[in-house]
Amino acid sequence: MLPKHHKNTFIDNNNNLYIASGNDSYYIHVWSLDKQRWTRSNISIGWSFGIGLFVTVNGDIYVGNNSHVIKWMFNDTTMPSTTVLSGECYDIFIDVNNNLYCSMQNQHKVVKKSLLSNLTEPITVAGKNGSPGAERHLLFYPYGIFVDIHLTLFVADHDNNRIQRFELNQLNGTTVAGNGSKNVTIILNGPTEIVLDADNNLFIVDYFYKRIVSSGPNGFRCIIGCNPNASASARLYSPSTMYFDTYGNIFVVHGNDKVTQIQKFNLAANSCGMFSRHE
Fold first, then answer.
1. Tell me: the pLDDT tens digits for 36-95?
2. Residues 261 and 274: beta-carbon distance below 8 Å
3. With DSSP H G I counted as helix, E B as strand and the rest as coil, what are the percentages for the chain, rounded to 5?
4. Of the candidates 110, 15, 27, 192, the residue with the CA atom closest to the CA atom of residue 100
5. What is the DSSP code (8-state) at residue 245?
6. CA gap 65, 67 in Å, rounded
7. 0.70 exceeded by the pTM?
8. Which of 86, 89, 21, 97 is nearest to 56 (CA)?
């Protein structure tokens, strides 16, 4: 069974939380985490099904549906300006060189396209031939992606229960966590998200084990959702996505068929707060 929740949230560098939600219509709402208020909620996409969301440092919004990735220019709340990619993206990431990456889950690959020219075609950067598999050059339902400042690509390879690292221009990946890693790291069960912090520690959303794990000097450890007998506020329910704000707090998207929660974990204070939205 694949995760229910799509990659439809984002936290930008100004600690604004973007939530793409909709029933008959599809909107992007923006919540200021610092001021604790909605700042904008009138971006109407008009799609009932949305996947993939990324906001650049200058406020441009990239959002996908089941066939395209479309760009909204900063302060444009009326019409999309550009279709930048054809294809279904579970996750969207834009690197420091203005390349857009798309995790094409159902095609078992990740593609990259330069945003500096409309003439460039997307190229495959992981999942060489688009076939599912467990070899170094293949993926099996890739979910979350992350690209560091060195243009190294990390992929949550969901059905292979592993995290793959792809160096720039290399189609053969290296398993850095989960099944097939060179050194014993941690057992994963359906990872859906991979994030690196400022110290290059890996943070992984482990979907079926309902937890967040991270790497450190002593290897991997569970940091959230570790105790199934803990209070409800300390447990996760089908987690799919996580983000950091600029203070280092972690926000996790999780929930069930009736309610999706965006929960904040302040690790320094060992406390948590909660945002929630009903579907």
1. 776 765 566 655 455 789 999 988 888 887 778 888 876 665 555 577 887 788 899 999
2. yes
3. 5, 50, 50
4. 110
5. -
6. 6
7. yes
8. 97
